[in-house]
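step=encode ok
step=design start
structure_in=
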């Protein structure tokens, strides 16, 4: 089945449209031949809108103390600027 539905068909077969969005991914609803809306599953919506952690928060949560890291006191390499 195509992933594009005309508005009238989407209204008439709403249950099928919702089921298809859950099993086959987002479904586009058109009005007068132009995309008007996209129907997606609740799981897809949750994935798209869930809050993402930033890198700094990831580092704060990481158990780095278990790694026993030792900082090198060496001067490093010469860099020409």
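sequence_out=
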């Amino acid at each position: 089945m195509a992933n594009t539905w005309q508005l009238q068909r989407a209204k008439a077969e709403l249950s099928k449209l919702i089921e298809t969005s859950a099993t086959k991914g987002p479904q586009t609803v058109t009005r007068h031949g132009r995309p008007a809306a996209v129907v997606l599953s609740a799981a897809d919506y949750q994935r798209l809108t869930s809050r993402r952690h930033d890198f700094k928060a990831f580092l704060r949560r990481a158990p780095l103390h278990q790694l026993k890291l030792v900082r090198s006191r060496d001067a490093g390499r010469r860099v020409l600027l």
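step=design ok
step=annotate ok -> The helical segments are 7-12, 14-24, 42-49, 55-61.
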